[in-house]
Amino acid sequence: WSGWEGYRSGSEGAGSKWLVILETEWQDGLDEQEYSFGDMLEAWFARLDGVSVRHRFVHDTDDLELFCAQAAMLPGEVFLLFSSHATEEGMALPEGTAGAREIIEAIELCGNLAMIHFSSCLVMNGSIPRQILSSRRGWPEGFVVSGYTTSVDWAGSALLEFLYLNLILESGLSPARAAEAVLETLDYAGSSPGSCMDAAGFTWLTPR
Q: Per residue of the chain (208 residues), what is the pLDDT tens digit?
């Protein structure tokens, strides 16, 4: 027998909102410049008091499960963003595709999720979002699974997501209301093209 001493993960000076970005490397080799959307988001939201950003690179389903399990221990709401190449079948990882089963198993312990956003092409065109929502009861009010039905333009998705996340983390809108506001604000965000951008196909689902 011995004494146990511990603390809740991230409890020292942490805010109540956590943006957790799980990203795969976009570049395939040394001939390509390194790029990270998570780095951009981390720099942008560093200016906000009460918001903590955690950005990690995911290489396989073990990484996915590990970081989601750690996110489950964070003291506050977790706004989870997956950033990767993808198709309707799931997220592209170096070891293969993480589909609905792998994603649902990874987030199983995360009772503090406020939203899941796929910063990825085409995921919302498949069954993964609905399977996620059907995997449990008791999602919080305003919870969404969001993303794109198209092979969205890089710049278009970046602009959209800076606005979307800013409305949530700085302006205090619920994810569902922020998603509505994105469509109201950006002419290309939905199913119709804008004045200088193809339609992004941004959409979201809420629990029934």
A: 788 877 665 554 455 899 999 999 877 778 878 889 999 999 999 999 999 999 999 999 999 999 999 999 999 999 999 999 999 999 999 989 999 999 999 999 999 999 999 999 999 999 999 999 999 998 998 899 999 999 999 999 999 999 999 999 999 999 999 999 999 999 999 999 999 999 999 999 999 8
Q: Which of 62, 55, 63 is nearest to 37 (CA)?
A: 55
- Closest listed residue to residue 197, CA positions, set 146, 167, 157: 157
CA distances from 113 to 61, 78, 98, 153 (A): 19, 5, 19, 27
Residue 162 zone, left/alpha/beta (φ > 0; ψ -120 to 50; rest): alpha
Count CB-CB contacts under 10 A for residue 168.
27
96 token code pair: 């293969």
Closest C-alpha among 179, 107, 110, 190 to residue 149: 190
Cβ neighbours of 66 (radius 10 Å): 14
Give the phi and the psi of residue 141 in degrees, each rounded to 5.
Answer: -60, 135
- For residues 140 and 113, give the distance between their C-alpha atoms in angstroms, rounded to a whole number: 8
pTM reported for the whole predicted model: 0.91
Q: Give the separation between CA 177 and CA 142, rounded to whole angstroms.
A: 8
Q: What tokens does 185 get?
A: 């604000």
Angle at 42 between CA 146 and CA 51, to 5 degrees: 80
